[in-house]
Amino acid sequence: MSSFKELGVSRWLCETLSGVKITRPTNIQAGTIPEILKGKNCIGGAKTGSGKTIAFAAPMLSKWAEDPCGIYGVILTPTRELAMQIAEQFSAMGSNVNLKTALIIGGQSMIEQSNNLKNNPDFVIATPGRLAHIIREHPDDVDGLKRLKFVVLDEADRLLTSSFTEHLGTCFEAFPDSSKRQTLLFTATVTDAVRSLKDKSDDVFIHELDKIDDVVIPERLSLSYILTPFLVKEAILHNLLTTDEFKESTAMIFVNRSETCELIRRILKALDVRVTALHSEMPQSERTNSLHRFRAGAARILVSTDLGGRGLDIPSVELVVNYDIPRDPDDFIHRVGRTARAGRKGSAISFVTPNDLDRILAIEDRTGRKMSEYEKVTDNAVIKDSLKATFAAKVDARMDMDKENFGERKQKLREKEMQRNGEVVKQGKITKHKKPKKSGKK
User: Fold this and answer.
1) In this predicted structure, which of 94-98, 148-152, 218-222, 389-393 has the lowest mean pLDDT?
2) Which residue ranges have biased composition labelled Basic and acidic residues (predicted)?
């Protein structure tokens, strides 16, 4: 297929896409749009940046324009940032046809969002947790969900994990039966959990460009490691980022925990590095501003948990640092995929502590590549240029985070969730409600 018109996309949408210089369908779009327009359910697998959003949005908008009644479709995605990005793309594509969208995510007014759902927008873009909360707390405001025509799971492999099971269950209970709607799953990684859904229905097709077992790290991406004693990780990071090789480079630093992310951000900022961060403890406005700063070049370093590992429209960076080694080798692949894009070169450097050896071996086995040791950060340079200043900045950052009770908000939300699930929180301990034992006497 050479054009969106030949794929069956509505004329008005073809003109809108052409207006923003999108004229030729990508492989994932050409492979999925015609089948979705025929009414089939879909599992689409392709790497980040391949055009998955238009692959599900174009056929949905084309069908919506034929009969725009009530809430037509819901798009569920695992993070707020992805939801916001998708909402922006829907708004842009529907700018000439008065398309109404509702963004349902945490960190914003739930009352306002509930009212937006009550007004039956055309499309709802949501994170499962917030939508499930509104369904439970304001059931009268979500009647429109019972008549929708499409449900999309974006980054489906992440949504189909235990972390989202309960929330997804609540959401799907509010949707029509599967026989009365189309279900579209799109993901960069078609896992067994995603693939198994095809076995449950004959009316599902899979279009997979990059099979999980065929993923290869490109040769232009340099993979290396630094053996890192735990107590001097921050000093080694600072030294790496200020070497002649990387002192001007845009970089993403991946960590496994929000607390680590915030600590690294504060240390680097104190050492005059233009840095910003992305983690779940940040208010939504700060998360949004942080991404804008990085995209605009106001910050050359983005410290991130796996919130920034995939899906987001982040420009290709020159360096990826795995400050913490991910537990899942596929998360490593998504992280390092942020560099060496569009034919450019890139570097990915992993900090390896003695506890990480098994994870590194699993990653090397998964990628089929051996990492080489990065030798340009030396003990003498770390001691001379970074150790003392980094240690002082770390002490100050820790003290400030303690004063601000960093992590308290997350703990309160967790306790509230536990209490709703019938668990009791006493002095920091969580226990189940105990049912009274039945007496043996009649």
Assistant:
1) 218-222
2) 403-420
For residues 78 and 98, is the Cβ–Cβ distance under 8 A? no
Q: Which amino acid is at 50?
A: S
Residues of the chain with CATH 3.40.50.300: 4-214, 221-401
β-strand pairing of 123-126 with 101-104? parallel
- Residues 207 and 31 sit within 8 Å (Cβ to Cβ): yes
In angstroms, the CA 64 to CA 67 distance is 5
Q: How far apart are CA 265 and CA 348, in angstroms?
A: 19
- 3-state class of 377 per DSSP? coil
Closest Cα partner for 70 from 146, 130, 128, 140?
A: 146
Quick check: helix, strand or coil at residue 399?
Answer: helix
- At the top level of CATH, the class of 221-401 is alpha beta
Q: Tell me the per-residue pLDDT of 61-101, one tens digit each, with 9 for 90 and over.
A: 999 999 888 999 999 999 999 999 999 999 999 988 999 99
* CA 222 to centroid of chain Cα atoms: 24
Q: Band the pLDDT of 210: cuts 50, 70, 90.
A: low
The set of long-range contacts for 20-23, using a CB threshold of 8 Å and a minimum separation of 24, is 20/92, 22/54
Global confidence as pTM: 0.79
- Options 3.40.50.2300, 3.40.50.300, 3.40.50.720, 3.40.50.360; CATH for 4-214 is 3.40.50.300
Those residues with Cβ within 8 angstroms of residue 285's Cβ, 6 or more apart along the chain or in another chain: 107
